[in-house]
Here is the input.
Amino acid sequence: MTNSPLTALIFDVDGTLADTERDGHRVAFNRAFSEAGLDWHWDVALYGELLAVTGGKERIHHFLAQAHPAQLARTDLDAFIAGLHRAKTVHYNMLGAEGGLPLRPGVARLLQAARTAGLRLAIATTTTPENVTTLLENSLGAGSSAWFECIGAGDIVPAKKPAPDIYHWVLAQMQLPAAQCLAFEDSENGLRAAHGAALRTVVTVNDYTASQNFDAAAVVLSDLGEPNAPFSCLRGDTGGAGYADLETLQRWHRGQ
Ligand code: XBP
Ligand code: MG
Here is the structure.
């Protein structure tokens, strides 16, 4: 339980704002591989396993260690991975610009409500900064990345989620204690990062994360819900609410 006021909302991006992994990042990785003349293909199931490692470059490295260990001996390994990842980022941003990455239910509504109420907004993500801007500007409109006073993304901290570093970095930028914030995540790695920074966390699951461990979450939901399309609550107390509004967020933040 906390008596601190709720001052800011801090959002993860991939899987939380939008279902970007299966039909966004995965597709972009495969296009980059094929463009580089590689016959690697990350199908939906394999990609689910690879998601254990956050960060695109880190994920490629992990895949090589598992499936093509001889590649790890390349003298240009870091540059090779960085090149593939740059190409992947181009493809991902093309998908985003084509409108292929819609926001999850309740996200736009909640962001608008938070803005109207004067709550401060931030992003804490593992993905590349440019991916965040593309997603926001194409889904919420031009200029919407400025709604977020702080965007913590990509390599800005060396240790990616589940390390809490990106949340520590965002809190330091905002000069806010964790007790005045609520985090939004979709994965166990993300929850471990937020919880490790002492943030109370709302989890909205997706197909890749539904069976993960969310014991440390304030509440676990199918999604943020809409007035005409209520969420399912998988763990925790919603006080009868069918969608995440500011009153419900206050309750989760207080720990009631
Ligand atoms: C997101 C990720 C990212 C994306 C790929 O994790 O793991 O790696 O899949 O992004 P989270 P990049 O939602 O926990 O932040 O390829 O740009 O790294
Ligand atoms: Mg995520």
